[in-house]
Amino acid sequence: MSVKLYDLNMQKIQLRGVKWLEFTTEPPTVNRITDSVWNGDIALGRRRNSRRIQARFYYESNDSVDYKTLRDEFFELLDPLNEMYAVDQDVPLKRWKVEIESYNSLRINPTIAEVSIVFCCLRPFAESIVTTLNSNVGAYTKNSTTFSIQNLGSVDIEPTESELIIKITSISATSSNLKVTNKTTGDLWSYQGVFKAGDVITLDGVKYKRNGLNIIGLTNLGLINIAKGTNEFLIEGLTGQFEITFDFRYLYL
Fold first, then answer.
1. Which neighbouring-strand residues pair with 234?
2. Which CATH code fits 3-124?
3. Tens digits of per-residue pLDDT, 169-228?
4. Cα–Cα separations (whole angstroms), residue 216 to 73, 77, 203, 219
5. CATH code reported for the domain at 132-252
Protein backbone atom coordinates (compact mmCIF):
# COMPACT_ATOMS: atom_id res chain seq x y z
CA MET A 1 0.00 0.00 0.00
CA SER A 2 1.00 3.64 -0.27
CA VAL A 3 0.11 6.82 1.60
CA LYS A 4 1.06 10.34 0.59
CA LEU A 5 1.21 13.30 2.96
CA TYR A 6 0.81 16.92 1.85
CA ASP A 7 1.03 20.28 3.56
CA LEU A 8 -2.01 22.58 3.55
CA ASN A 9 -0.93 23.97 0.16
CA MET A 10 -0.97 20.40 -1.23
CA GLN A 11 2.81 20.33 -1.55
CA LYS A 12 4.02 16.77 -1.04
CA ILE A 13 5.85 15.99 2.21
CA GLN A 14 8.83 13.85 1.25
CA LEU A 15 9.45 10.97 3.68
CA ARG A 16 12.73 9.32 2.77
CA GLY A 17 13.13 5.54 2.99
CA VAL A 18 9.51 4.86 4.00
CA LYS A 19 7.28 1.89 3.22
CA TRP A 20 3.71 2.14 4.51
CA LEU A 21 2.21 -0.88 6.25
CA GLU A 22 -1.20 0.33 7.47
CA PHE A 23 -3.67 3.18 7.07
CA THR A 24 -6.93 2.26 8.83
CA THR A 25 -9.71 4.78 9.42
CA GLU A 26 -11.95 4.15 12.40
CA PRO A 27 -15.72 4.11 11.72
CA PRO A 28 -17.87 7.19 12.38
CA THR A 29 -19.25 7.66 15.89
CA VAL A 30 -21.68 10.13 17.42
CA ASN A 31 -22.10 11.75 20.79
CA ARG A 32 -25.69 11.60 21.99
CA ILE A 33 -26.82 14.66 23.89
CA THR A 34 -29.52 13.82 26.42
CA ASP A 35 -31.24 15.19 29.48
CA SER A 36 -32.29 13.06 32.42
CA VAL A 37 -35.97 12.72 33.26
CA TRP A 38 -37.74 10.61 35.86
CA ASN A 39 -37.83 7.53 33.64
CA GLY A 40 -34.58 7.49 31.69
CA ASP A 41 -33.38 10.18 29.29
CA ILE A 42 -34.79 12.32 26.51
CA ALA A 43 -32.80 12.92 23.32
CA LEU A 44 -31.72 16.51 22.65
CA GLY A 45 -29.60 15.77 19.60
CA ARG A 46 -26.50 14.07 18.25
CA ARG A 47 -23.16 15.34 17.00
CA ARG A 48 -20.40 13.58 15.10
CA ASN A 49 -17.15 12.94 16.92
CA SER A 50 -13.69 13.51 15.52
CA ARG A 51 -12.03 10.40 14.10
CA ARG A 52 -8.71 8.57 14.33
CA ILE A 53 -6.63 6.88 11.65
CA GLN A 54 -4.21 4.15 12.71
CA ALA A 55 -1.11 4.13 10.51
CA ARG A 56 2.20 2.28 10.45
CA PHE A 57 5.30 2.46 8.30
CA TYR A 58 8.86 1.28 8.48
CA TYR A 59 11.88 3.18 7.31
CA GLU A 60 15.34 2.05 6.34
CA SER A 61 18.38 4.29 6.62
CA ASN A 62 21.74 3.96 4.90
CA ASP A 63 23.67 3.23 8.09
CA SER A 64 23.47 3.71 11.85
CA VAL A 65 24.48 7.40 11.63
CA ASP A 66 21.91 8.08 8.90
CA TYR A 67 19.33 6.31 11.08
CA LYS A 68 19.42 9.16 13.58
CA THR A 69 19.45 11.77 10.82
CA LEU A 70 16.37 10.19 9.27
CA ARG A 71 14.67 9.90 12.65
CA ASP A 72 15.13 13.64 13.23
CA GLU A 73 13.82 14.41 9.74
CA PHE A 74 10.59 12.62 10.63
CA PHE A 75 10.34 14.52 13.92
CA GLU A 76 10.46 17.75 11.90
CA LEU A 77 8.18 16.70 9.04
CA LEU A 78 5.61 15.07 11.33
CA ASP A 79 5.51 17.84 13.92
CA PRO A 80 2.30 17.47 16.01
CA LEU A 81 1.79 21.24 15.77
CA ASN A 82 1.27 21.01 12.00
CA GLU A 83 -1.89 20.09 10.14
CA MET A 84 -1.53 18.16 6.91
CA TYR A 85 -3.47 16.13 4.37
CA ALA A 86 -3.19 12.34 4.15
CA VAL A 87 -4.15 10.48 0.97
CA ASP A 88 -4.52 6.71 0.84
CA GLN A 89 -3.38 5.84 -2.69
CA ASP A 90 -5.93 3.02 -2.81
CA VAL A 91 -8.55 5.82 -2.74
CA PRO A 92 -6.57 8.58 -4.48
CA LEU A 93 -9.35 11.14 -5.01
CA LYS A 94 -10.02 11.66 -1.28
CA ARG A 95 -7.95 13.42 1.34
CA TRP A 96 -8.11 13.57 5.14
CA LYS A 97 -7.12 16.72 7.01
CA VAL A 98 -5.13 15.39 9.97
CA GLU A 99 -2.73 16.19 12.74
CA ILE A 100 -0.42 13.84 14.64
CA GLU A 101 -1.95 12.65 17.90
CA SER A 102 0.75 10.13 18.80
CA TYR A 103 4.04 8.91 17.30
CA ASN A 104 5.89 5.82 18.50
CA SER A 105 9.04 4.34 17.01
CA LEU A 106 10.45 0.83 17.52
CA ARG A 107 14.03 0.26 16.37
CA ILE A 108 14.35 -3.17 14.79
CA ASN A 109 18.07 -3.11 13.96
CA PRO A 110 20.77 -0.44 13.46
CA THR A 111 19.21 0.83 10.20
CA ILE A 112 15.50 -0.05 10.33
CA ALA A 113 12.62 1.08 12.55
CA GLU A 114 8.85 0.71 12.55
CA VAL A 115 6.75 3.77 13.34
CA SER A 116 3.16 3.73 14.61
CA ILE A 117 1.15 6.93 14.18
CA VAL A 118 -2.34 7.92 15.25
CA PHE A 119 -3.73 10.67 13.04
CA CYS A 120 -6.55 12.79 14.47
CA CYS A 121 -9.21 14.13 12.07
CA LEU A 122 -11.04 16.94 13.85
CA ARG A 123 -13.48 17.05 10.94
CA PRO A 124 -14.92 13.53 10.72
CA PHE A 125 -15.03 13.51 6.91
CA ALA A 126 -12.70 12.89 4.02
CA GLU A 127 -13.11 15.38 1.18
CA SER A 128 -12.54 15.33 -2.55
CA ILE A 129 -9.12 16.66 -3.52
CA VAL A 130 -10.53 18.79 -6.33
CA THR A 131 -13.62 21.00 -6.19
CA THR A 132 -16.63 20.59 -8.45
CA LEU A 133 -15.59 23.41 -10.79
CA ASN A 134 -12.09 21.96 -11.12
CA SER A 135 -13.36 18.47 -11.91
CA ASN A 136 -16.47 19.05 -14.03
CA VAL A 137 -17.18 22.69 -14.85
CA GLY A 138 -20.10 21.94 -17.17
CA ALA A 139 -22.09 20.01 -14.59
CA TYR A 140 -21.86 22.83 -12.03
CA THR A 141 -22.34 25.83 -14.34
CA LYS A 142 -25.97 26.59 -15.23
CA ASN A 143 -27.75 29.27 -17.25
CA SER A 144 -31.44 28.35 -16.92
CA THR A 145 -33.99 29.03 -14.20
CA THR A 146 -34.51 25.34 -13.37
CA PHE A 147 -31.71 22.81 -13.08
CA SER A 148 -30.25 20.09 -10.88
CA ILE A 149 -26.96 19.93 -8.96
CA GLN A 150 -25.38 16.64 -7.92
CA ASN A 151 -23.67 16.06 -4.59
CA LEU A 152 -21.78 12.83 -5.19
CA GLY A 153 -20.48 12.63 -1.63
CA SER A 154 -22.11 10.87 1.32
CA VAL A 155 -22.62 14.00 3.45
CA ASP A 156 -24.76 17.13 3.03
CA ILE A 157 -22.87 20.36 2.29
CA GLU A 158 -23.73 22.99 4.91
CA PRO A 159 -22.29 26.47 4.23
CA THR A 160 -21.86 27.18 7.96
CA GLU A 161 -19.32 24.34 8.19
CA SER A 162 -18.15 23.41 4.70
CA GLU A 163 -16.66 25.11 1.67
CA LEU A 164 -19.44 26.25 -0.69
CA ILE A 165 -19.22 29.14 -3.16
CA ILE A 166 -22.22 30.02 -5.33
CA LYS A 167 -21.71 32.76 -7.93
CA ILE A 168 -24.44 34.41 -9.99
CA THR A 169 -23.13 36.42 -12.94
CA SER A 170 -25.36 38.71 -14.97
CA ILE A 171 -24.57 38.73 -18.66
CA SER A 172 -27.64 40.78 -19.57
CA ALA A 173 -29.96 39.87 -16.69
CA THR A 174 -31.60 42.38 -14.36
CA SER A 175 -33.47 41.88 -11.12
CA SER A 176 -34.72 43.70 -8.05
CA ASN A 177 -36.08 40.62 -6.27
CA LEU A 178 -33.77 37.68 -6.89
CA LYS A 179 -34.60 34.31 -5.34
CA VAL A 180 -32.60 31.07 -5.30
CA THR A 181 -34.46 28.01 -4.03
CA ASN A 182 -33.17 24.50 -3.45
CA LYS A 183 -36.47 22.67 -3.80
CA THR A 184 -34.91 19.45 -2.51
CA THR A 185 -34.00 20.93 0.89
CA GLY A 186 -36.56 23.76 0.97
CA ASP A 187 -33.81 26.38 1.40
CA LEU A 188 -34.49 29.88 0.05
CA TRP A 189 -32.03 32.75 -0.43
CA SER A 190 -33.36 36.10 -1.63
CA TYR A 191 -31.88 39.49 -2.48
CA GLN A 192 -33.89 42.71 -2.75
CA GLY A 193 -31.13 44.93 -4.15
CA VAL A 194 -30.09 45.97 -7.65
CA PHE A 195 -28.66 43.36 -10.01
CA LYS A 196 -27.74 44.40 -13.54
CA ALA A 197 -25.57 43.41 -16.51
CA GLY A 198 -21.96 42.79 -15.50
CA ASP A 199 -22.75 42.28 -11.81
CA VAL A 200 -21.53 39.25 -9.86
CA ILE A 201 -23.21 38.07 -6.66
CA THR A 202 -21.17 35.68 -4.51
CA LEU A 203 -22.51 33.47 -1.73
CA ASP A 204 -19.34 32.32 0.02
CA GLY A 205 -20.43 30.32 3.04
CA VAL A 206 -22.36 32.88 5.11
CA LYS A 207 -20.80 35.91 3.36
CA TYR A 208 -22.90 37.56 0.63
CA LYS A 209 -21.38 40.12 -1.74
CA ARG A 210 -22.23 41.95 -4.95
CA ASN A 211 -19.18 43.03 -6.94
CA GLY A 212 -17.10 42.55 -3.79
CA LEU A 213 -19.33 44.67 -1.52
CA ASN A 214 -21.30 43.29 1.41
CA ILE A 215 -25.04 42.88 0.66
CA ILE A 216 -26.09 40.81 3.66
CA GLY A 217 -28.51 43.54 4.80
CA LEU A 218 -30.41 43.25 1.52
CA THR A 219 -30.93 39.49 1.85
CA ASN A 220 -33.24 37.28 3.88
CA LEU A 221 -30.13 35.80 5.61
CA GLY A 222 -31.08 32.45 4.09
CA LEU A 223 -28.62 29.59 3.67
CA ILE A 224 -28.42 27.23 0.70
CA ASN A 225 -27.49 23.69 1.68
CA ILE A 226 -26.61 20.96 -0.84
CA ALA A 227 -28.10 17.60 0.13
CA LYS A 228 -26.36 14.40 -0.87
CA GLY A 229 -27.69 13.15 -4.18
CA THR A 230 -29.72 15.26 -6.62
CA ASN A 231 -30.73 18.83 -5.73
CA GLU A 232 -33.42 20.56 -7.80
CA PHE A 233 -33.04 24.35 -8.06
CA LEU A 234 -35.33 27.21 -9.07
CA ILE A 235 -34.15 30.75 -9.90
CA GLU A 236 -36.79 33.50 -9.79
CA GLY A 237 -36.83 37.23 -10.44
CA LEU A 238 -34.26 37.38 -13.25
CA THR A 239 -34.90 38.78 -16.71
CA GLY A 240 -32.18 38.21 -19.29
CA GLN A 241 -29.10 36.01 -19.62
CA PHE A 242 -27.15 34.88 -16.55
CA GLU A 243 -24.84 32.15 -15.28
CA ILE A 244 -24.74 30.45 -11.87
CA THR A 245 -21.92 28.22 -10.62
CA PHE A 246 -21.56 25.91 -7.60
CA ASP A 247 -18.09 25.18 -6.25
CA PHE A 248 -17.62 22.74 -3.35
CA ARG A 249 -15.86 19.55 -2.33
CA TYR A 250 -17.66 16.26 -1.87
CA LEU A 251 -17.52 14.95 1.71
CA TYR A 252 -17.25 11.26 2.60
CA LEU A 253 -17.72 9.26 5.79
1. 146, 181
2. 2.40.30.200
3. 999 999 889 999 999 999 999 999 999 999 999 999 999 999 999 999 999 999 999 999
4. 48, 42, 10, 5
5. 2.60.120.860
